[in-house]
Amino acid sequence: MEKKYQIDTAENKAFLKENALALWNFGRRFPSEGGSSYYLGDDGTPCVDKPRETWITSRMAHSYSMGVLHGIEDCGELVDRALEGLLGELKDTENGGWFAGRTADDNILPGKQCYAHAFVILAATSALLAGRGGAKELLKDALKVYDDRFWNEEEGLSCDTWNTAFTVLDDYRGINANMHTVEAFLAVADAIGDETYRVRAGRIIDRVTAWAKENQYRIPEHFTADWKPELEKNKETPDDPFKPYGATPGHGIEWARLIVQWAASTFGVKSEKAVPYYQIASGLYDRAIEDGWNADGAPGIVYTTDWNGNPVVHDRMHWTLAEAINSSAVLYRVTKDEKYAAQYSMFLKYLDETVLDHSCGSWFHQLDRQNQVKQTVWPGKPDIYHALQAMMIPYSDVSVSIAKVCYNNAVTDPS
Q1: Which tens digits make up the pLDDT trace of 190-209?
Q2: Which of 103, 239, 310, 403 is the most buried (most CB within 10 A)?
Q3: Has residue 403 got a pLDDT over 90?
Q4: Residues 6+ apart with CB under 8 A from 354
Q5: Given the residues 180, 314, 365, 386, the one annotated as active site
């Protein structure tokens, strides 16, 4: 295996740094006139005929805030543009919170999504650490809306979707929104020191891991209003981008990383109290890789499986690979198990040979089972969030949110 794919080599660090810089360069054309983010096409050209969504705008604010903290030229201006969108055309000044987005002809995308609001919080924490104007106001507002509308203190979980006016709550409950809530809550705790949010993240994690254990470490994604799993939901539309049928190996992998981060930050990286959570994280990751990687005779992680681990949607999504890179590195750090280092190298080799677009930039967002480009779920290359984090997390403190890591590094080594 080439050294550039091997963790803790100078060549690997250089490979990740080079690709992070390329991603920051690729995404620079995202801002619309009002600041909300365009989807980006294959070569980074803005797709002006698509909606400009809050979750993508927030991801771009987060991504370029890390660019600011790395001293990358002009990233501050791009963060400010995204904040302009989040504080302006995407914000609902009448009912509170954030619209799902804006259509190409500037109408409102209806509904208030927990998923999107979690990313607003993440964007605000990162922009605050990057010292951008308006970030403190954005974070204060986002936390209040989230606490009032989405967090359920009694259940220790978040609801999913309201109507635009916040008068009707949908009966659907989803784990994907709660996963990104954990990410956002840990970022809040790290950015402003409010440990309430770290405790909440742990409550979500305990609920999710209990469900996973009941399903052989395959996480149920969809639930009723009273949190009963709906294992057969969307069987007729199995490749739904946000509510796919069955188990999603990529989410098992992503949860593994977040569980390690929460446990390490709560108890200490080497604490015995963290070890049971590391074991749970390993179980989720190992199950996902066993079910998903090379499941049909070709490299890559399948999008979904049934509840016995058989592939349902064979497509490979770029974010799944990004999280596999992250989690294999993180699990190697806390377990010292060489199998995770070997898998990390395997994933990076696959990235370089198959998923990186060496011609137009960024990563192919969707490949079919033969690893040919496919654009049914994710046309183009909408944002850089997952790919960028995969170029940074492998060499970050496992107990700290990535933007805070960037902030700490900038403070200790301002050069």
Answers
A1: 999 999 999 999 999 999 99
A2: 403
A3: yes
A4: 299, 300, 367, 371
A5: 386
62 is catalytic: no
pLDDT digits (tens, 9 = 90+) for 130-157: 999 999 999 999 999 999 999 999 999 9
Any catalytic annotation for residue 251?
yes
CA pair distance 389, 55, nearest whole angstrom: 16
Catalytic one of 62, 251, 314, 318? 251
How confident is the model at residue 240, as a pLDDT? 81
What are the beta bridge partners of residue 46? 40
